[in-house]
Specification:
Blueprint (H helix, E strand, L loop, with lengths): L1 E5 L9 H4 L2 H8 L6 E5 L15 E4 L13 H13 L4 E4 L1 H9 L3 E4 L5 E9 L2 E9 L1 E5 L5 E5 L7 E4 L3 E4 L7 H10 L7 H9 L7 H14 L4
Parallel strand pairs: 1-2, 1-3, 3-4, 4-11
Antiparallel strand pairs: 5-8, 6-7, 6-9, 9-10, 10-11
């Protein structure tokens, strides 16, 4: 199965030599599930010729806001609507989660309660998960076709499904401790409160359930359902 990764942002320059870019993190996360990958840097206006070029699509995270004025956002939203109408499986993570919701009639905004960063607890599809987060924006109004399958006290719309066509999550199963530590170092200061950054670093050695969520994503691509 060929998965097209729509990269909507890049990892910090300081991190890329050791962690790779965001698309590399997803290829590592989903490696071993029998997928082939093609990367499109849509943030740099590198779009596929057709939505049928791949059997499924995945939209990455980004430092950008879904509601911001960037050239890549309108064509990406149009592509999302086209993928949905064509019943091709689509997965979105963080910004991907948000831009899919926005494209299909939901609302995304900078959340009044601030940031969620580092290791967080979620209920997803009836199970407890520990996953890394890095976001201030949230889906505050979900599209009419979206059903909540994951949440926590801070993020009500943390995971959404749109029938058996789309699965999206706000946290980052592709982020391990190295990436979170790098984001705290290079993108945290001046943005995220110091106390939250200190907690991020205190939690770096605690386990997360990236592999479990990767298995859910792989199953969704292959079977159009979650376990």
């Amino acid at each position: 199965m060929k998965i097209g990764i729509l990269q909507t942002g890049h990892a910090p320059d300081e991190l890329r030599p050791t962690t790779g870019d965001f698309s590399d993190l997803f290829q590592a996360l989903l490696g071993g599930h029998g997928f082939d990958f093609t990367v499109y840097n849509v943030v740099d206006m590198d779009f596929p010729a057709a939505i049928t070029d791949c059997n499924g699509w995945l939209i990455t995270g980004s430092k950008h806001g879904a509601y911001e004025d960037h050239p890549f956002i309108p064509p990406l939203e149009a592509m999302i609507r086209e993928i949905y109408a064509a019943d091709i499986p689509l997965v979105g993570v963080c910004f991907g989660h948000q831009i899919i919701a926005q494209a299909l009639g939901g609302r995304v905004m900078k959340f009044d309660a601030g940031w969620s960063v580092g290791r967080q607890s979620y209920q997803i599809n009836g199970d407890d998960y520990a996953l890394n987060a890095w976001h201030q924006d949230q889906v505050v109004v979900r599209p009419k076709d979206a059903t909540i399958v994951g949440s926590n006290d801070f993020c009500a719309n943390a995971a959404l499904v749109y029938g058996n066509r789309i699965f999206t999550v706000q946290p980052h199963p592709e982020f391990d401790a190295r990436v979170i530590d790098g984001l705290a170092t290079y993108r945290g200061p001046g943005n995220v409160p110091d106390a939250q950054l200190a907690q991020v670093r205190a939690d770096l050695d605690k386990p997360v359930d990236n592999g479990r969520l990767a298995a859910q994503i792989a199953r969704f691509f292959k079977e159009r359902e979650l376990a």
